[in-house]
C-alpha cells in the first residue's frame, strides 16, 4: 500500500490547476470567524397556528458525511480543513487531494467560493470507497430579517466532486417558495431541479436529477439574505450536490 500524500490545488474556475502545496488545511492560517446559532424571532416566516403543518427547519450548516463547525470541515476520514480565514481567497475553488506515492487518488475535498461573503459549500469524495458527500455552512440570516414580500433571483454555482456548474434560484418571499436549477453538463452530470418552502430563515424541499428524486436543505446567509447556500442529496450519492448563490 502506498504512502499517503496530501496536496493543495487552487483553481481559478474548475478546469485549471494553479500550483501545489501541503495538506492539512486550506486558505491562510488566520483564526476563522466563529459561526454561532442566532436567536430566531418570528416575522411571518413561521406559521404557528394549531392546524398548520410543522414548519421546515433548515440548519445553518449541514453535511452528508464528516462534520462541519463554523468554517471548519472535518472529512469522514478525520482530516480537518479550515475553509475560510480573514484573508482573501486565492481562487474560486480550493481542492485538497490525498494521493498515494504512486499518485493513485484516495480522496478529494473541494470548497467554494472565495467571492462569496457569507457562504461556503463543498464536496468530499473517497475514490477507493466510492463515497460522495456534500456540505455547506454560512453566516445565517435571522428569520426576522428574511424578506416577507417581493421576489428575488440568486445566481451562483452547484458543485459535484469539485466540479462547478451554473445555478439559479428564483425566490418568492411572499409565497415563501424556492425554485432552483443547477445546470447539467458533461463534466458536472445531470441537471438538478429544486423546489422548496421558506421557514425559520431557511428552506427545505424536493429535488430531481437524472430521473431520481431527492431532497434539498438550505439557508439564507448575510444580514438581510444577501446569499443562500445548501445541498441536494439523493439515494445515488454521485448525484449529491452542494450550492451557493448571491442575490442579484
TrEMBL record:
Alphabetized InterPro entries for the sequence: OMP/PagP_B-barrel (IPR011250), Slam_hemophilin_C (IPR054843), TbpB_B_D (IPR001677)
Name this protein carries in UniProt: Transferrin-binding protein-like solute binding protein
Domain of life (superkingdom): Bacteria
Composition-biased stretches (Polar residues): 29-45
Secretion signal, residue range per the UniProt entry: 1-17
Compositional bias ranges of the Low complexity kind: 46-59
UniProt keyword Signal, yes or no: yes
Keywords for this protein: Signal
NCBIfam families, A to Z: slam_lipo (NF041636)
Stored Gene3D superfamilies: 2.40.160.90
Domain Transferrin-binding protein B C-lobe/N-lobe beta-barrel: 134-247
Region (Disordered): 23-63
Taxonomic source organism: Silvania confinis
Amino acid at each position: 500500500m502506498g504512502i499517503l500524500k496530501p496536496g493543495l490545488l487552487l483553481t481559478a474556475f474548475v478546469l485549471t490547476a494553479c500550483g501545489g502545496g501541503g495538506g492539512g488545511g486550506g486558505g491562510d492560517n488566520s483564526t476563522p470567524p466563529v459561526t454561532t446559532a442566532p436567536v430566531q424571532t418570528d416575522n411571518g416566516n413561521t406559521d404557528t397556528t394549531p392546524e398548520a403543518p410543522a414548519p421546515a427547519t433548515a440548519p445553518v450548516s449541514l453535511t452528508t458525511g464528516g462534520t462541519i463547525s463554523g468554517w471548519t470541515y472535518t472529512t469522514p476520514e478525520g482530516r480537518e480543513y479550515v475553509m475560510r480565514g480573514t484573508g482573501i481567497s486565492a481562487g474560486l475553488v480550493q481542492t485538497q487531494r490525498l494521493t498515494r506515492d504512486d499518485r493513485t487518488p484516495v480522496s478529494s475535498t473541494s470548497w467554494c467560493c472565495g467571492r462569496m461573503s457569507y457562504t461556503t459549500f463543498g464536496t468530499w469524495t473517497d475514490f477507493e470507497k466510492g463515497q460522495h458527500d456534500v456540505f455547506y455552512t454560512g453566516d445565517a440570516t435571522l428569520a426576522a430579517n428574511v424578506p416577507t414580500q417581493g421576489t428575488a433571483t440568486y445566481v451562483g454555482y452547484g458543485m459535484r466532486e469539485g466540479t462547478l456548474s451554473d445555478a439559479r434560484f428564483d425566490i418568492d418571499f411572499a409565497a415563501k417558495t424556492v425554485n432552483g436549477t443547477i445546470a447539467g453538463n458533461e463534466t458536472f452530470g445531470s441537471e438538478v431541479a429544486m423546489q422548496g418552502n421558506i421557514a425559520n430563515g431557511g428552506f427545505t424541499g424536493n429535488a430531481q436529477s437524472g430521473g431520481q428524486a431527492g431532497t434539498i436543505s438550505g439557508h439564507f446567509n448575510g444580514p438581510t439574505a444577501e446569499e443562500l447556500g445548501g445541498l441536494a442529496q439523493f439515494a445515488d450519492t454521485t448525484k449529491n450536490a452542494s450550492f451557493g448563490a448571491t442575490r442579484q
